[in-house]
Write a structure and sequence with these properties.
This protein is α+β, with helices and mostly antiparallel strands and 327 residues long. It has helices at residues 19-31, 135-138, 158-173, 179-197, 201-225, 235-242, 246-254, 260-276, 286-292, 298-309, 313-326; strands at 10-13, 37-39, 46-54, 57-65, 67-71, 81-89, 92-96, 99-103, 108-111, 118-122, 126-134, 150-153.
Length: 327
């Protein structure tokens, strides 16, 4: 739970620190308002946290253990915010006003009145995800948002699982680079969050279509990117692994003006380009690199590579080698 004026992206880790140094680092962060957490007595402190922003949505994820996270009712900037916390793996205890929740793997909790403050306790390391966004963005989608100040979301929630998977894929992909992409990502996160807590019936179908579609497409892209070297990579295989139909996979790519084949070809060419320009692979043959990138036909690889980069693989490697010598 970061203050409203925290600059993102942001990273903090206690890895490699001595126990005393970990507690001192946490106290320093808490004193300056960057991270309101306290070490727990007789526990080993562990924290490895990354924070990113996508439009008006802030995302916090990582591992926490031996800590108590305290968000005071007096913290400035939370009055117009809502906060989702997900205990991705492990165990956590949440206290809010007179209520206490024990969260196990996958369970989540939404604070629709974050200004009231809450406490999160993790005696042992657990993976977590936090999402903070303006209340005005979620309120139109959830008609009864004022019904409770704390909403428990079970780990069995399909929408919540999709939200966790989606943010996880974004985390592995790094920060987005354009305002348009940030806006799209924040919309998808908002849609999945609204569905997790109960979107208004009239808006649930639209939100579900956007959010679930985005999460599915990200999962499919990650699946494909991890198997680029497989020359038998096919829409049938990825559809079977993802539990959807081939037609649905094609429709997902069509929704963003692309095709399954175009995506696979582009990623394979990008992978081949990285291999060709890597100094440590300068002795590898171009044929070997083409095979590693999933191309079984060297002529097709050469033609596609030249169309994409305006030079042959041999010319690209030579230009990179000359450039290194000049540097």
């Amino acid at each position: 739970m970061l203050p409203a004026d925290s600059r993102l992206p942001w990273r903090f880790s206690t890895r490699g620190m001595a126990p005393d140094a970990r507690e001192a680092a946490l106290r320093a962060l808490s004193e300056r308002g960057s991270l309101p957490m306290e070490p727990l007595p007789a526990c080993v402190v562990e924290a490895d946290i990354t924070a990113r922003a996508y439009g008006n949505v802030a995302v916090l994820f990582g591992v926490l253990g031996g800590l108590r996270q305290v968000v005071s009712p007096r913290v400035q900037g939370f009055a117009d915010e809502v906060f989702l916390g997900v205990n991705v793996a492990g165990h956590a205890v949440i206290r809010h006003r007179s209520r206490e929740l024990a969260l196990t793997d996958g369970d989540g909790v939404l604070f629709s009145d974050a200004e009231a403050g809450f406490v999160s306790i993790r005696t042992r390391p657990s993976r977590f995800l936090g999402v903070r966004l303006p209340r005005r963005a979620l309120a139109p989608l959830v008609a009864n948002l004022d019904q409770a100040s704390m909403w428990a979301i079970p780990g069995e929630s399909r929408s919540l699982r999709l939200l966790v998977d989606y943010v996880g894929l974004l985390a592995r992909g790094g920060d987005s680079q354009t305002p348009a992409l940030d806006h799209a990502v924040s919309t998808h996160i908002l849609d999945l969050l609204a569905l997790s807590v109960g979107a208004d019936r009239d808006l649930a179908a639209e939100a579900g279509a956007r959010g679930v579609r985005a999460a599915r497409l990200q999962a499919i892209k990650a699946d494909l990117s991890s198997r680029l070297g497989d020359p038998e990579l096919s829409v049938l295989a990825v559809a079977a692994r993802q539990g959807v139909t081939p037609r649905y996979v094609h429709k997902l790519f069509e929704s963003e003006g692309s095709t399954f084949s175009e995506f696979v070809l582009a990623r394979r060419l990008e992978f081949a380009h990285r291999l060709l320009t890597a100094p440590r692979l300068a002795s590898r043959s171009i044929t070997s690199i083409a095979l590693d990138a999933g191309f079984s036909d060297l002529s097709h690889f050469n033609r596609a590579f030249r169309r994409r980069y305006g030079a042959t693989p041999t010319e690209t490697r030579a230009a990179e080698s000359i450039g290194r010598l000049r540097r």
